[in-house]
Amino acid sequence: MTNVPQNAYNDLLDNAVTQLIKDKLELLFREEIKNFMEVEQSENARNFRNGYYERTYDTRYGKIDDLRVPRDRNGEFHTQLFEPYQRREGWLEEAVIQMYKGGMSTREVAKFIESMYGAQYSPTTVSNITRTVMEDIEAWQKRPLERRYSVIYLDGLYVKLRRNSVSSEVVYLAMGIDEKGYRQILGFYVGGHESSNGWREVLKDLKQRGATDVLVGAFDGLPGLEEAFREIYPKADVQHCIVHKVRATFPKIRVADKTEFLGDLKLVYTALDGEVARAVFDGFKAKWSKQYPKEVKSWEEQLPTLLTFYKYPQLTWAAIYTTNAIERTNKELRKRLRPMNSLTNIEAAEKIIYLQATDYNEQWYGRAIRGFSDPETKAVFEKMYKERYGSNE
């Protein structure tokens, strides 16, 4: 082979691989029709083999021009390896879906496929291929949820959608940590503008799908959201995101005071326990209430829900007192959506978000969040579940 040019060598290798695949497929066909004739059809069937027909079939390793597929006299046998009129293995369609998930527009995907493979894929064809995902989305959005969730996070992000005109609309996103400590995206809901009524419908859906026992809900201070959450989950605690609260306070403090003010504030939510935190806040209030009365009062009024995390095992505090986890997920979703500019419709947004959400859930499955898998933490949570909701029978 040393005298064979590299290109010729590559061609020989490709042909060998394609021939191997052809041989293996035809072997499978022969086993299929043998099983059909001897096992699947009824004993009284008057049916016999009837030779072969040839067809082309594109695979990721090359095109097979003369694939021999067996047939029967009655035309009842059909191979299970592909559909009767399928001319291509599903790898290219899968590649289309993956590129679309990565944020490429249908037009960009079509151009890429044509440049790489010579296949004439119009944007409409690409859209039709990705539309098959919609059936999966519907099933995924209706799937049953776990009964118990230690934490449910709620957060929204805005995307540009085209209806009669282009406008920003919200994607409601719900994420949970179940009793095993596994994180998962529970659902997403696209359309409209963020409101407490919108969140109420989201929470109703989560509960109807089986998420009935929740210990704490973590979210920002959107007006009416706390009331909506307590209406659906009256036995759960509410944790307002401390990071959101700090961000909201930051611009209102003079530059000269920012470091000292925020440093004193940090001592409140990094205290050893809830009792110490409230005592530290009293000192913070005495020091800063004259200079920043509105800001201090705002913290004081919201303090019960800002310090909720102290009721839970210490190893879980970092995961409970902030919605950073769901915000990071939203940030990644924005990156996927941004290259699309104005998405054509809600369906396009749902396809991208669904593909990314299922990817995340696969990555997270079986990997407990730090602190939640600790035996002592699990024992405390189990006690909380039983006290609020009874046994998990």
UniProtKB/TrEMBL annotation:
One of its GO terms (biological process) is DNA transposition. Keywords: DNA recombination, DNA-binding, Transposable element, Transposition. InterPro entries: Transposase_mutator (IPR001207). Pfam families: Transposase_mut. One of its GO terms (molecular function) is DNA binding. NCBIfam families: transpos_IS256 (NF033543). Belongs to the transposase mutator family. Required for the transposition of the insertion element. This is Mutator family transposase.
